[in-house]
Design brief:
- It holds the Pfam family Trans_reg_C.
- One of its GO terms (molecular function) is DNA binding.
- One of its GO terms (biological process) is phosphorelay signal transduction system.
- Keywords: DNA-binding.
- By secondary structure, the protein is α+β, with helices and mostly antiparallel strands.
- It has a single domain, classed as Winged helix-like DNA-binding domain superfamily/Winged helix DNA-binding domain (Arc Repressor Mutant, subunit A, Orthogonal Bundle), CATH 1.10.10.
- Helices cover about 40% and strands about 30% of the residues.
- A five-stranded antiparallel sheet has the order 1-2-3-4-5, covered by helices on one side. A two-stranded antiparallel sheet has the order 6-7.
- The radius of gyration is 13 Å and the shape is globular.
Length: about 110
């Protein structure tokens, strides 16, 4: 279930389906279109890509991205995943989805 087609292109640059994700420049590119991510969105996506073969729990994202601050991190995770989904949709990405397993966490799905 957690085995998306992610190729490591260069340092912190990945090909996810037909989407190019550059964590260094905090950008997502599809064809000639490029969008940029805010810091937390980039950190969440990078953590999911770096752990592509498994489910990433909410608590793990809070620990890694929000330094264990559950007060801001709990809503931050939900907000970030929602924003990432919107960014992917706005870019016209159809192959890559962020899936939720209720009460467990998130994973990348590549069709």
């Amino acid at each position: 279930m957690y085995n998306p087609n992610i190729a490591h292109l260069e340092s912190k640059q990945f090909l996810i389906g037909n989407l190019i994700y550059d964590a260094s420049s905090q950008s997502l590119s599809l064809g000639t279109q490029t969008i940029y991510l805010r810091n937390k969105l980039n950190e969440v996506l990078f953590h999911m890509v770096a752990n592509e073969s498994r489910l990433v729990s909410r608590s793990e994202l809070i620990e890694k991205v929000w330094d264990g601050n559950y007060y801001t991190g709990a809503k931050g995770v939900t907000h970030s995943v929602c924003k990432l989904r919107k960014k992917l949709n706005d870019l016209g990405v159809t192959q890559v989805k962020i899936r939720t397993l209720p009460k467990q966490g998130y994973y990348l799905s590549v069709n």
